[in-house]
Design brief:
Helices cover about 0% and strands about 55% of the residues. With about 120 residues, it is mainly beta. The protein starts with a strand and ends with a strand. The chain has no helices and 11 strands.
Length: about 120
């Protein structure tokens, strides 16, 4: 089992920035394939935001956040991060960290709320 805990969310004005963190614990001796961030706004389905491959560090972004958000990972801390800049009201959502492992096993955190005011 792997536990993921997100932090760093909050209330910020449009144009502001936050740094979301995702700390992994538990079966961390097994290397994840990919760490991702997914978000869900009220009344909507979950939306892919960004992903990074753990070994190679290849990143992928949703069109809506490319150029504003940056995903990264830290081997030593078993953590992933999402730097979110130039936030927009439509970025308001609960942001979830996910980790994908071999065998189509994935884990999710409990989410951290990001609220952007106009």
């Amino acid at each position: 089992q792997v536990q993921l805990v997100e932090s760093g969310g909050g209330l910020v004005q449009a144009g502001g920035s936050l740094r979301l963190s995702c700390a992994a614990s538990g079966r961390t001796s097994t290397t994840p394939q990919t760490m991702s961030w997914v978000r869900q706004a009220p009344g909507t389905e979950r939306e892919f935001v960004a992903a990074v491959t753990w070994i190679a560090g290849v990143t992928q972004y949703a069109d809506s956040v490319r150029g504003r958000f940056t995903i990264s990972r830290d081997y030593a801390k078993n953590a992933a991060y999402l730097q979110v800049n130039n936030l927009k009201v439509e970025d308001t959502a609960v942001y979830y960290c996910t980790a994908s492992y071999p065998g189509r096993v994935s884990y999710w955190g409990q989410g951290t709320q990001v609220t952007v005011s106009s």
